Amino acid sequence: MMRKKAILSSWLWLAAALVLSACGSGYSLRGGVIEPPKFAPDFTLTDQNGRAFRLSDQRGKIVLIFFGYSACPNVCPVSVAQMAAARRELLQEANDVQGVFVTIDPERDSQSRLQRYMSVFDPTFLGLRGSDDELQSVMKAYGVTAVRKEEPNSALGYSIDHSAFIYVIDRTGRLREIMPYGLQVDDLVNDVRFYVHEKG
Amino acid sequence: MIGRVWFLWVVVGLWALAGCSASANSGASASAGPIQVSNAWMRPAVGMEEAQPDAMATPVGASAALMASAANDVAYMTLRNTGQTPDRLVGARSEAANAVELHIEEQKGDMMQMRPVDGIAVPAYGEVKLEPGGFHLMLIGLKRDLKVGDKVTIKIQFERAGEVEIQAEVRAQ
Fold first, then answer.
1. For residue B71, what pLDDT band results from cuts at 50, 70 and 90?
2. Closest residue of A to B69, CA-based?
3. A10 vs A50, which has greater pLDDT?
């Protein structure tokens, strides 16, 4: 029932978007749009293959960033899987999209662990890590909250309470959206497609 | 005469085949006493690696066991109690993981949290769903990769009904 409703509403949105674009007044975006957009804070971290990743080197691509950790049960794999599904649905526009996962748990998410973790989602996605200091400054710049909770009664040892947004950065390096957890893949596809085809 | 014997063998063979496929399908749900477990599923995941020296220094105190334990997965399912006495899910184990724990996931404002719980109540004549955003089984230290279509055997322990062996299917989402 919910799903039918969601499908129906997505068609309505699409119809509304078409009508609006025909009137020349634009497209309907579904994430948390940042107005006016500002440049996404630049950073350099290391990807799962040991290569340096600098955000500003990605100009020309739409970059989707999620901050999480591989021991996270649901929210992290769902968010990264949604980014991967959106990229698949974009078909010919897929090469314009770079998916990025930044670990907030470098202690457990070693480089080789990230390599294996990322392989579940999309072969083009990058899993980034860095020293505690490097990660702290990136998280601060993006307003990511992460609080370590000791779990003496769990084999995990600890868990991490964390915020769970998908950050959308356009071709020119501007942060355009901070998407809340709970949006659907077609919302992501809708918005990313807008930025892919955006002029200037 | 020979034709008749041949026919009999074919009948026996078909009957045996039918028996095989019936038992292969029986993993969809399981029960113990009044407790029924259905729709058990997990997501694809990668198993543990050998803990190996990393290019980036690992903080002091992070043991090999902790690094290895980052290979985890979650199992969801529906628990139904057809009896008049409340029961509780109190534990679980699986050949596929070093440990299986009962956890709850909660959203507090913008923050996502995960906590272990002692048990999950299954009310009399009631149902509880282990599903995304709520209760789940956490499989910690996966011993192998889990791919779509794989089946994972998990034994879950109830306070009253005892142990139920279930098959969780690995699904894309």
1. confident
2. A156
3. A50
Residues A107-119, buried b or exposed e (16+ Cβ, 10 A)? bbbbbbbbbbbbe
Complex-level ipTM: 0.80
- Cα distance between residue A78 and residue B32, in whole Å: 32
- Which architecture characterizes domain B28-51+63-170 according to CATH? Sandwich (2.60)
Whole-number percent of chain A with pLDDT over 90: 81
Pick A107's closest partner by Cβ from B59, B99, B173: B59
Chain B environment of A107 (Cβ under 8 Å) = 58-59, 62, 66-67
pLDDT at B3: 57
Of the candidates B55, B56, B101, the beta carbon closest to that of A154 is on B101
Q: B7 exposed, middle or buried (CB, 10 Å; 0-12, 13-18, 19+)?
A: exposed
Q: CATH 3.40.30.10 in chain A: give the residue spans.
A: 31-197
A31-197, superfamily in CATH? Glutaredoxin (3.40.30.10)
- How many angstroms away from the CA of A110 is the closest CA of chain B? 7
CB of B139 within 8 Å of any CB in chain A? no
